[in-house]
Amino acid sequence: MAKAKAKATAETKAKAKAKAKTTTKRGAKARAKTGSGAKAKVGAGRKALKVIVLGGAGDMGSRAVEDLVRTSGVASVTIADRDRRGAERLADALQGQRARVVAVGVDATDHGALVQAIAGHDVAASALGPFHRFEAALVRASLEAGADYVSVCDEWEAAQAVIAESDGPARQQGRTVVTGLGASPGLTNVAVRHLADRLDRVRGADISCFQPLDAGGGEAVHKHMLFIMSGAAAAWRGGRQVMLRACSEERTVEFPQFGALPLWNMGHSEPYTIPRFMPGIEEVNFFMGYGPGAELFVRPAQWGWFSSPRRVDRFARLMGWADRLSGRRDPGLGALRIDVWGERDGAPAHEMICGVGQMRDTTGLSLSVGALMVGRGELLTDVGGVYAPEAAIRPAPFIEALMAKGLDAYEDVAMTRRLTLQPGATRPHDPPVHAHADEHEARARPTP
To answer: 311 and 169 in one domain?
Structure first.
């Protein structure tokens, strides 16, 4: 009986691998006909895309699913999640929309099952964390299945691993991988690129994020929050990467609607990827805060309490219990602020974008819009590889699409000047730079 089961499992994996290879070859042939990175077209219009959303039954992934099924140019959306019943409930609720929607149960630790689920799709869009555990594996599975890939991964270690491991294979296959396309990182990176285009020379960028403790997302978000508050956090200072202890630096930042709030340095990926794809920038910082009650978590983080996965699990459960006890149903609003400085016409210049919104909307919609742009090849590059958003996503179309879906952006904290995106107002984009891993790491240094 055990031998028969093992044989059946081996045959299933072999079939999945063969199907993935066929899909990869078919995709490579289509790209060869249409040009590197270009997408095949059907008739006078674009090819209708097939998108699979990994972690699609979760808080962020489900928002991307909701948007994709209502968007023209999408043929089908597959909700892939370990929680098959949750995926099926969501699929049932979304029947009758523009795109066909189906649900599948997938265990992200089963590589063969992942490849089989992704094969036949144009794009795999992932909201599945924790990213330090799953991101590299999901990219590997997508490349083997012959699909482009985009995710909301926001951890610098995971981004580093994916770039180092999969950039070469993605280039060889002509596949596009965009890691970190949620709210932050994601919208923040694209905003940095947009603001940089307004300057003649870029010197630095500050990414500031306010995420209230009642932002929603459940235990997964709480675990991620505690993870980025512990260990090392990347920063870019003086043209070099420095590793700082998370929550070792504090600053006060003025946000729209919320005023001045305390923030701390934490382990997001913007300070790691932006200097890689925008060479010459001298400083990139990421700071984050949680508003009232933040000290209850910041102080233990500074004492090293969250260095143990067991403690992280306990604190995350405690936070979930507090959320349920509060009885609040609607997630609280958060805020983003992106500052870029440099020179214009020989004089110092500063540009800023800010806005207020719910984490689920900003993250999920960024993923869905990004997945469409990747699938359609509407990017800054037509060369396969692993990219961060600032190197692949066209700023104006991306921001315009989000604003059309109800996410507003402003050029002042009083929110009186709505962001304007005038055609031709920005400089032409240089091709994205692929700094070789060894070259980039040679400029990194630890800070005592």
So the answer is: no
Tens of pLDDT along 321-373? 655 555 556 788 999 999 999 999 999 999 999 999 999 999 999 999 999 99
pLDDT tens for 295-332 read 877 887 778 777 767 766 666 666 666 555 555 567 88
* Cis preceding linkage at 185, omega within 30: yes
Residue with tokens 């149960």: 105
Helix (H) or strand (E) run with residue 25 in it: helix 2-34
The secondary element (H helix, E strand) that includes residue 133 is helix 131-145
DSSP 413-441: TTS-SB----TT-SPPPPPPP---HHHHH
42, exposed or middle or buried, with CB in 10 Å at 0-12, 13-18, 19+? exposed
Q: Does 311 lie in the same domain as 215?
A: yes
Residue 193 sits at φ, ψ, to 5 deg, of -60, -45
Non-local CB neighbours of 47 within 8 Å, separated by 6+ positions: 39, 40, 41, 122
Q: Taking each helix axis from N to C terminus, what angle separates 187-196 and 395-404, rounded to the nearest 10 degrees?
A: 130
What is the C-alpha to C-alpha distance for residues 226 and 300, in angstroms, rounded to an integer?
10
- Helix extents (H) in 229-308: 270-277, 295-302
Residue 323 amino acid letter: D
Max CA separation in the chain (angstroms): 77
Nearest by Cα to 250 from 239, 236, 237, 261: 261
Q: In 106-215, which ranges are E strands?
A: 123-126, 148-151, 176-178, 201-210
Q: What is the CATH number of the domain that holds 431?
A: 3.30.360.10
> What's the CATH number where 179 sits?
3.40.50.720
Q: How far apart are CA 333 and CA 431, in angstroms?
A: 36
Domain range for 398: 187-360+393-446
Q: Determine the angle formed by the axes of helices 156-173 and 270-277, rounding to 10 degrees.
A: 40
| 323 and 404 both lie in a single domain | yes
What lies within 8 Å, CB to CB, of 53 at 6+ separation is 61, 64, 65, 68, 77, 78, 79, 80, 125, 126, 127, 367
